[in-house]
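Teaching assistant's notes for section 4

Start the section by putting this record on the projector. Ask students to predict, before seeing the second block, whether RAB3 GTPase activating non-catalytic protein subunit 2 will look compact or extended. Collect guesses on the board.
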Amino acid sequence: MHREVGQSKLSISLSVMCLSDFLFITKILLFKAGKSSNWEDDGWGAWDEAETQEPGEEESSCKTQTNYWLQDCVLSLSPTNDLMVIAREQKAVFLVPKWKYSDKGKEEMQYAVGWSGSLNVEEGECVSSALCIPLASQKRSSTGRPDWTCIVVGFTSGYVRFYTENGVLLLAQLLNEDPVLQLKCRTYEIPRHPGVTEQNEELSILYPAAIVTIDGFSLFQSLRACRNQVARAAASGNENVQPPPLAYKKWGLQDVDAIIDHASVGIMTLSPFDQMKTASSIGGYNAAIKNSPPAMSQYVTVGSNPFTGFFFALEGSTQPLLSHVALAVASKLTSALFSAASGWLGWKSKHEEEPVQKQKPKVEPATPLAVRFGLPDSRRHGESICLSPCNTLAAVTDDFGRVILLDVTRGLAVRMWKGYRDAQIGWIQTVEDLHERETEKMDFSPFGNAQGPSRVAQFLVIYAPRRGILEVWSTQQGPRVGAFNVGKHCRLLYPGYKIMGLNNVTSQGWQPQTYQICLVDPVSGSMKTIHVPFHLALSDKKSERAKDMHLVKKLSALLKALEKILASERVPFSSLANITRTLMDTLKNQELESVDEGLLQFCSNKLKLLHLYESVSKLNSLSLQSETTISDNDLAKLLRLDEKEFVRFQTLLENYKQENTQPTVRFAEDKDSVLSVKMFLEYLEYEKDMINVKKLEEGEYVALGSLFFWKCLHGESSTKEMCHTLESAGFSPQVLLSLLLTLWLSKEKDILDKPQSVWCLHTMLSLLSKMKVAIDESWDSQSISPWWQQMRTACIQSENNGAALLSAHVGHAVTAQITDSVAEKKFSQTIVGADTDSWEALSLDTEYWKLLLKQLEDCLILQMLLNSKVSKRTTKVSSLQTEPLCRLSVKKLLEGGKGGIADTVAKWVFKQDLSFNVLELARKKDEESSEEPVETDSTVSLGESEAETGLETILKLLQLAYQQFPCSLESDVLYAHCCWEYIVIFNSAFLRVCIALMMWNTFVVKRLSAATYLMDKVGKAPKDRLCRRDVGMGDTAMTSFLGSCSDLLQILMEADIRSDEMHTPILDTEDAWVSVEGPVSIIELALEQKCIHYPLVEHHSILCAILYGIMRFSLKSMKPLSLFDSKGKNAFFKDLSSIQLLPSGDMDPNILSIRQQLLRKIVTAAVHCSSQKAKGISEEMSLSAEREKDWPVLAVGLAQPLQVNEDVIRRHYVYELYNYGLDQRGEEATLQVHDKEVLASQLLVLTGQRLAYALLHTQTKEGMELLARLPPTLCTWLKAMDPQDLQNVEVPIATTAKLVDKVIENLPENHGQYSLALNLMEAVEAISSS
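Reveal the predicted structure now:
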C-alpha cells in the first residue's frame, strides 16, 4: 500500500484501478526494432509470447533509461474506463479492459490489446494528440449510458481523424495545414446554479496559430451516421447515405508569439460593470454599449509573449463553417467517393494503388481574433494549461518549474507553487454527501440544512515526476491535503470531460461510473485513481468535525460487515470466534493513529461475549448427579414455616395447580431448544466493561435467562460456577436477578411440578445476594434495600401467582437469613452464648415481605375463583359472557381501586350466570345451610353430579374469598357491581336507552342536581360532612357517583345513535298466558319512554365530566356553574327528552377564560398523579374504572364543546409532562401539537429553569466555573429564571440536552429566541461533558 505523506490514510486514498502487464506488451508493440512501418505485412498483432521476452532483456540492462518510454507517447483514457489509446509516431495500440484471474487466483481487471496498427495516411505524418470520447446511447433502455467510444487522433500533417474501437476509420478532416498541437473536449454538465450559463458540447483543436471548435451536437450526429454507414457498407457494400454536415468555427489567434496549449472556457456573459469596463477599454470615452451584455466564447492560451493570453469571440459575429462529410468505408465500391469537393478523406489500405492522384482538400481561412489581454512575462514560457471542472479556475505549468493558479473570470494569477519542474496537473471535483452534512446541525452553519443543495469542492492534483510525488491541494488558498510517493516514470491523465451526447434530461437519469483523474505507472504496470473526501475542503474547525463524520461513515460500513457475519445463523461458533479474534489482532498490530478505538472496542466486546457463550455452554453440558429428594420438613425449614403453615401453603398451591391447569401444545424441540449464538449476541451489549441486556420481548428475555439458569434450577448444572462465570464476565447482580425471576415466573407449570427447584432458587438467590453491589453496604434493618425491592416488584407485576408466591417465600427466607446474620454480628457481644435459632431479627424489608406474601396469597385465591366453572350450559349466552377474564396480579388489584376486587368478582358472576342465592349461600357459616345449596337455589344451571361437585367447589372458593376480602366483597358492594354488569348486557340499543333514561329520572338526576349546587356553593370539592348532608353519600362515594353519571350519559348517547338503526322490540306473550293481568312490566314502562334530545344529553355529559374532574382531583377555586351562561344553566336537570334552549354562538371571553383554566388544572393534576405513580408512590383510587380514564385526552375532548382552543390544552399537557420530568411521554405528546413554535418558546423557559437550578442553586465548583464561561446574555437570562416552579429538579442533564434539541428543531431561525436557544444548547453540552 502507498503511504500518504503528512496525512492520515483515512483522509485521502490512492487506490489501484487495475493491475496488468499491458504496458509491457504495449512497449513491445510501439518500440519493436527492426520491423518495417508497414504493420499489416508484419502481422505483429499475433506475436507469440516467446518473442515478447527479448525486449525484457534489453530493459533489464538499461532499466532507468527505458522507464521513461511512456513520456514519449501520446496517451488517452476514456472517462468511462472502457478504452485506452497509447500512440507513438505512426503506431497506436487500443486497449480494452477485461476481467481475468491473477497468479494468486484473484479476479481483477486487466487491460488487453483490442487493436493495434499504423494510423498514418500521409507520408511522414505522426500522431501528435489523441482523445477517447464515449458517445451516449440513443436507446430508451440505456438512456444516458455510453454506447461506443470514438477515438479522435490529431496528426502533424494537420489532419484530424476519427476511429472506432476496432481501428476502423470513420472520417478525416484537414482543418488547417499546420500540425495539430492539442485536442480537447467539453461535454454537457447540468448548471449548478440558476445564474450559470449552460455550456454546449464541443471539440476544440489547437494549431500553432489557430483554434478550431466543432459543435458537439453536429459532431455527435455525424459520427453516428458514419458508424452506421460503415456497418451497412461492410454488410452489403452498396448503401450510401449522406450524413449531416459538420459545423465548426476557425479562429486565427493574433498578437501572440507562440502557443503551446489552450483551454476553451465556454460561453460567458459579462456583468453590466464588466461590459462598460470592456467597452471603455476598447472604444474609449465615447464607446457605446448595448442594453443586454453580449455572450462570448472565452479561450485561454499558454505559450510566450504573452505567457497567458485571453481571447473572447462574440457569439454571432461569424457564421459557422459547414463541411460536408464524406464517408470512409472499407469497400472497393466506395473508393471513388474521394474528391476534393468533399474535404474529407476515407480510410484505405496503403497497399492499394490510387488510380487517380489525390488532390489536397481546400482549407478554409481563419477568422482573425486578437488577444484581449494576457499575463505578460517575456522570460516565462507556458507549457500546459488545465481548466477546472467548474470552469472558473485553471492551472498553468511553465519552464521555470512553477504551477500557477489562474482565475479565468477575472484574468488574474491567484496562487503559485514552486519547485515542480515538468509537472503534470489535473483536477478532482468532490460533491458533498448530504447524509454527512445532516449530522453537522450542531454547527449551525448556513449550510446546516440537509435539504439544501450539495456543495462542491475543487482540488488541484500535481504530479512532480522529478521528485516522484503526487500531491493534492485544496483551492483556492487551501493547504495540501494529501501526498503520495508514486515513482518518477508515471503519467497523469485528466480528461476533463465525460460522455458526449447527453442533455439536461438524459443526464439526470442513470449516472455512469466515470473517473476524474488517473495515474499510469509503467514500472508496476498499474493504474491508480485518487479519492478525496469533501471535508478536506472545509475550514480547520469544520474539517475536523466533517472528517470525524467521514470516519464514522467508513467505520460504520466496516461495523456493518462484521455485524452481518456475527448475525449469520450459518456460520459456526468456532468460525465466528476466529474471525473476530483475527480482526482484533490485525487492528492491534496497526499503528495507533490509524486504528479507531471504537472499532477495537467493538471487536473486544464481541469476543468477550463469544467466550462467555462458550463457557456457559460448557457448564450446561456437564451433567451433575441428581441429589436426594428433599423432604417436606427440610423445605418447610428452608422457607421458615411451621408445620401448620407449610401444610396450608402446600394445600393452597396444590388446589391452585388443579384449578389453573390449561391444555397447552408442546413440541419436542422446545424441551431441548438452546439459544443460538446469533441471538445471544443480539440480546447483549457491553458498556464500560459491564454487560447490559437490550430491550427485549418477554419471550426473548426468558430464552436468555433459560440459557443461564434453567439447568441450575433443575439441579443439573453447578449453580456456584454459573454465578461466578456470569459475575466475572461483567453481569451486574441486578441484571442476573431480573433474568432469574423472569425465567422463574414464566415457567410456573414446570416449577410447581418440581419442588426441588425451590431449593435451587434459594441457593442461587443467596449467591446473587452475596455478589458485590447487590446489597448496599450502608443498608440496615430500618431501610428498604433496592435489591429486595426489585424482587418484590417482579412478584407484584407477575400474573403467575403460584410461581410469584413461591419466589416471595424464598425471597423472604433469604432476607431473614441475611438480616439475622447482620444482627448476630452487631449484637454478638451482648448475647454471647445465646441461642439465636429461635428468634428472627426485625427489619423493614421483612415486614414488606410479609405484606407481599399476604397480597399474593389473596390474589392466588381470587385467581382460583376466577378459574372455577359451574358446568357447561346449553342455554344461549351473551357474547360478553363468552369473553375470557383477564389474569390477575397484585399490581392490577392495587391499581384497580377500592372497587376493583368487587368488580372482578362481579364479572366472574356474570360470566358464570350465577344467581344471587349462590352468593348468599356462601356467606352462611352453619353446616345446615352449606349442605343444601342445590335445593334452595333452583335458578342455578346444574347438571348431574359433576355440576354439583363444581358448585360445591365454587361455594368453598367463595367462602375463602369472603374470608380474605371481608370489606371488598361486602354484600352491597358486590351486588352493586353485579347489577352494573347485567345492565351492560342489553343487546337492544333501544331498550338500553329506555332503561338508562328510567335510571336517570328515578335515581340520578336529583342527587346530581344536589351535588352540582353544593359544589357551586362551596367553590371547590366539598368535604365528606357536606356531601353526606346535601347529597346523602360520602365524598368518596360521590366521586364514584359522578363518574357513574358520566358513564350513564355516555351510554345514553351511544345507544341513541345505534337505536336509529334498530327496530323497536315487540313484546309477545305465550298463548296460554295472553289473559294475564296485573302491574305493568318494567319493559313496557321502558318502551313508553320518549326519545332523548341528544344535544341536551351532551350538555349534561359535559357538566358531569367537569364535576367528576373537580371531585377526582380535589380542585379548588372552581365553581362549575360559572362555566356556563344563563341559557346553559337553565337547561340543566330538565327532562332529557325535552327540547331546551341551549347556548349557541360565541361565548363570553371571561367564561372561556375560566373554562380554559379548569381544563389546564385537570391536565396538571392528571400529570401530577402520573408522576407520583412513576415514582412508585401508590395512591388509592376510588373507582375501579379509574384506570380507564385518560384525563388529558378527556380534557382535549371537552375543549371543543367548551369552545376552548384544543392546541392550548395539548401544549399545556406537553409542558406539564416536561415540568414533572416525564420527558419521554412529553416527546410523544409533542406530535399531537399543531403550533410547535409557541410550544418551543414555552419549553425554552422550562429548560432555562432546569439549567438555572443545575448551575445557580446546587452551588458546585464545576457549575460556578462553567457559569463564568457562559455568555453574559445567557447568564442574565438564567439568573432571571425561577427553578421553584419546577416540579421535578432531578432530571438528568442528558435528558435536558434532548429537550434543547427539540426546542431548536421547532424554533425557526428568525425567531427572537433562537440565538438564546443555541447558547443554551452549548451550555448543556458543556455540563454534560464536565
